[in-house]
Write the structure tokens for this entry.
Amino acid sequence: MQESEREITAKPRADLAVEYIDDDLLVLDKKHGQIHQLNHTACVVWKGIAAGDSWRTIVSSLVDQYEVSADTAGKDIERLVSQFRILNLLESQ
């Protein structure tokens, strides 16, 4: 599957509390008793997922903000989405 055809078939869990502090994002998961601090890159990806943005749109955001290749941005998104899933921060749409 080409990068432009990829989809993110998840969204942040509705029960999470989110607080933006400067360039970071804090995600409070009361259900699991955890707080997660997302750096700016992870925050961009999180915001895109929460907004329902396409894979291509999130890749473009990372490319524009960090001047990285689309391939690098795609790998970062893949890694972050995987980590969000492992931490049970996402639910299926």
About this structure: The longest strand covers residues 24-29.
